[in-house]
Amino acid sequence: MRNKNGIFWGLFLLLSAVILVVSQMHLLTYTLSFWTIVFSLFLLAVLIKSLVYFSIPGSVFSLAFLAILYAKPLGITNLVPWTILGAALLVSMGLSLILRPLLFKHRPWFNYKKGYTRGHHGPFVSFDYNAEPDMKTVDAPDVDVYVKMGNSVRYVKSDDFQTANVDVNMGEAKVYFDHVTVKDTAEINVNVSLGGVELYIPRDWNVVKNINNNMGNITENGTCNINGDDPDVVISGLVSLGNLKINYI
């Protein structure tokens, strides 16, 4: 799993070389403009990265935008862009439901076996996928938040916070960490797909971000105020066609 960035860039460079050579040799009957090539390379980069990180929304929507870009040579000009994007949304939702067990197995930032296991980023715990999204206070060192097509609010309280796993698919989640104590280090794992997550984090945490962004939006609100004695908290995971907002409070 550690070589995934290398695989991504390797495949991207190979495909870029093919596109460049083919376009310059005029082997295609359809003439490509400069900006068409630029957008094509960008969408191919997103597609490869989505495949490498097993992101269904990123893969489907990058293919949808490529279909819109090449509607004329593909003979689908009768399909308006909104039709293609609407179909992409339905396909993304369907494949996400069908392939969910496979995605859990191959995503490096989550491990869904029972008990503690150690992956690329550290120890993880399993999710309870039968939980209904709602509003509650959680007094535990390890917190699991699962939202699918709904909303969830979690107020975390712990004297020894260690791990939070936040999985949001086509929903919204807000998680407050202002009433927790981190003795040494902690980790917050996020997986956002076609949804939004807001994290409310004490400004005296030394936050280390290790997040893969796949056509998503990651923003920060506020500033940190840390010193040498403050705990380290790693935020890792994937944001795919979604939003992650980190609020320092």
Automatic annotation (TrEMBL):
The chain crosses the membrane at residues 7-26, 32-48, 53-71, 83-104. It holds the Pfam family LiaF-TM. Residues 8-102 form the LiaF transmembrane domain. Keywords: Membrane, Transmembrane, Transmembrane helix. The keyword Membrane applies. InterPro entries: LiaF_TM. This is LiaF transmembrane domain-containing protein. It comes from Companilactobacillus alimentarius DSM 20249.
